[in-house]
Each structure stands twice: as C-alpha cells, then as structure tokens.
Amino acid sequence: MTGTIFDLKRFSMHDGPGIRTTVFLKGCPLACVWCHNPESQPPETAYLQRNDLCVRCSLCVGRCPRNARSLGENGGVRDAARCVACGTCAEICPAEAVTRVGREVEADALVSQLAKDLLFFDESGGGVTFSGGEPLNQPAFLRKMLVRCRAAGLHCALDTSGYAPRQVVLDIARQADLILYDIKLVDPDLHKRYTGVSNACILENLRALSMIGVRMEIRMPIIPGITDTPDNLDAAAAFIRTLPSVPPVRLLAHHHAAMSKYRRFGMVHQLGELDDPSSGHMAACAARLKKFGIEVFV
Questions:
Q1: What's the whole-model pTM score?
Q2: Most CB atoms closer than 10 Å: which of 11, 33, 106, 288?
Q3: Was domain 2-43+103-297 assigned CATH 3.20.20.70?
C-alpha cells in the first residue's frame, strides 16, 4: 500500500510528547486562510515553478521524456497537456526553480525508516505523529501506517481537524495512542468563511471521540482578529466543557514563518502579513479558557 506525503521532519518537539518524527500527508479538504502548509492542500503531487530562479539552462527541456518543457520569455514553461508529473524537471534543475511537492511512499518502507529512531523515541517518551494537510484524507494508508507503527513499538499521535466521516474518525482514532484535535472557530458561519467548510461534523466527531475515551488534546490556533476573539474563546470553552471527558487545550500562536512558503510557491496569502500574538496575549487567551475550568497549555 502506498500513500502521498509532502514532508517528513525528524526530531520534532511540538507535535506531541517527547522527540518525534512528523509525517506530513498530502491533501486537505479545508482551505484555512492562515494555512501554514498551503502546499499540502491539493491531494496530488505537484510541481511548482519559480521563474525568478530559472537560469535558462534548458536542461529540463532536453531531458523531459514527454517534451512537455520549453523556454519562454520569462523562463521555463510547462505544457500541462503533455506533462505526466514524472519529476524529471525537478530532479535535473540545478537552480531548484522547479520544486516537487509530494511523493509516493510505500507503507512498510516508511515504517522501517521511522523505526530507526526508536531509541530516541523510547528515551524521550516520543514517537511518530501523522499530520498534514489532513491525514484522514488518506484513511486506508493512514490506518495501515498506524497499525504497523504500533506493532513496531512506536507511539503514534494523529494531528487532525476531524473533518471526515464519523466511522472513519472513530476507526482511525482507535489505532492511535494520542489524538491532537484542532478546533478553530465555533461559529458555523465564521468557520465556513475562514476554512471553506462547515464545522458541524468536526464538533460532532470531537464529541464522539470524547465518548469512547481516547486520549486526546485539543489544539487551538490563535490567529489575531479571527480565532482569538472573546466570543470564539468563550464559545470554544463552553463547548469543550460539555464533552463527556474534558481534554486539555493547547494554544498555538500564529507565526509568520509560513509567509516564505507563499512567496516561494507563488501563492497569495489571503490575510497578508499578520503580527504574531505576543506572549502576554497568549497568556490572556489561556486565562480566559481557564476560567471555564479547563487545563490549558501555551
């Protein structure tokens, strides 16, 4: 069985307990306007071109097996009708003007690669985290990875928005040791406006997970002027308090590091340059949630 990932980061310290390796799966049904991994949203492998880096060497033109490359006035040109996304252009480009986003991996080979760091995981109480994109967008591959990783003695965490059919969420969650569950906005209209989808199944799936007693941590991104409003914080806290088992909440501060990705991939960041929330503001958001009797981390 194979799946499509777009990144793999070893020695991560912020995607669950201990030292971890985070596997980023391609594809996401949400389109959050503040997305830190915009290249993850399309499910298929993509080749993004930066003509400002193109040195007009013509290597990609001569090596393309489908004759899908040519040189234009501003640099390389791809013929979408001929291109089969083989990756030759990205591999051959000396200036990295063509970037491959996404690669197909075989489940057993990936598990073997992850298991090489088992010593670091055991020493630190860490493991493997599956993130994205939205990992539930590839449920069969994700399930197999979780089963194989746990059989290999690897602690497994799942970082998810919960936007998937109920049975998929429950089945996958039972294979994981820890669920890192995102809540962004509670108001349905605002959620649709800023993420592109309804939050109805997200909140319903969170309640269903709470009922079966899986180990879980709720994560809230603090996006200035959007998710950090008193109304949204109070609504999130009120909803969390109604869950059969109230999990801790971790607040994640927006950071502008992703802006370089938008520039590199020629994408438009819909929010523009946002100021990152200060430590004082993060503490104030945490204090507001704590008034509801919720355990909160920043």
A1: 0.89
A2: 288
A3: yes
